[in-house]
Amino acid sequence: AVWTRASKTGLLELLLRERWVRVAAELSGDALSLTAEPGSDAAALNGVPNGGDAGGVRRVRVVKAEAGGLGISIKGGRENRMPVLISRIFPGLAAERSGALRLGDAILAVNGVDLRDATHDQAVQALKRAGREVVLEVKFMREVSPYMKKPSLVSDLPWDGAAPQSPSLSGSDDSGSPQHHGGARDRKVIPLKMCFAARNLSMPDLENRLIELHSPDSRNTLILRCKDTATAHAWFTALHANIAALLPQVLAELNATLGG
């Protein structure tokens, strides 16, 4: 059989530490390179106010789905001498879908209940009692945003047990090490040998935009989100083709090992 390998580049989103991060993806014959886009901070991808003033008080209406909660985690509270802050926004749930909340937002009120002087537990209970439709008064707290750690491809994207990279992939290092290209950008190179590409396996994909890449030992999974269904299909097809094209090499190495 004649195996052909696809080359492809484009902007995708990567699920990293429960947040979507925009990455420049480059597919070569035997590897997938992901480079964090400059300026793709968590706030830009996990809820930017649509036309609102990031520095002022905003009223945000969030409607929960039949299944699933609000989709945020909070920290802080009166006992910590901090406002109640949004510390996580979970992918696919109501808060993220609203597109109007961001990490580092202080929750001032929930459905008219003032939380400015609330303890952490009081804030949790207010959010739980809020019902299906939740109106939040929030204000972005720029001074606490440094404590909301920005995800890093190099340090936060595990890929243990991946097959060694091909020597032909010039300038690449071990997949667990930082890649320094053009000014020490946050970059990760994923070898494709013995990986497994899938769809609708690890998490729901109601919009049909997700691609999954599983490591050879099945311990790690990459979740990539495309702009639309057609783009997701094209990327999945290219990934699948390149992984399949590496199979003869894998079989030859196995035969050499067993025969030796």
UniProtKB/TrEMBL annotation:
Gene3D superfamilies: 2.30.42.10, Pleckstrin-homology domain (PH domain)/Phosphotyrosine-binding domain (PTB). It is a peripheral membrane protein. It comes from the Eukaryota. It is found in: Cell junction; Cytoplasm, Cytoskeleton; Cytoplasmic vesicle, Secretory vesicle membrane. InterPro entries: PDZ, PDZ_sf, PH-like_dom_sf, PHsplit_syntrophin, Syntrophin. Residues 59-142 form the PDZ domain. The keyword DNA damage does not apply. Residues 165-179 have a biased composition (Low complexity). GO terms for cellular component: anchoring junction; dystrophin-associated glycoprotein complex; microtubule; synapse; transport vesicle membrane. Keywords: Actin-binding, Calcium, Calmodulin-binding, Cell junction, Cytoplasm, Cytoplasmic vesicle, Cytoskeleton, Membrane, Microtubule, Phosphoprotein, Repeat. Adapter protein that binds to and probably organizes the subcellular localization of a variety of membrane proteins. May link various receptors to the actin cytoskeleton and the dystrophin glycoprotein complex. May play a role in the regulation of secretory granules via its interaction with PTPRN. Belongs to the syntrophin family. This is Beta-2-syntrophin.
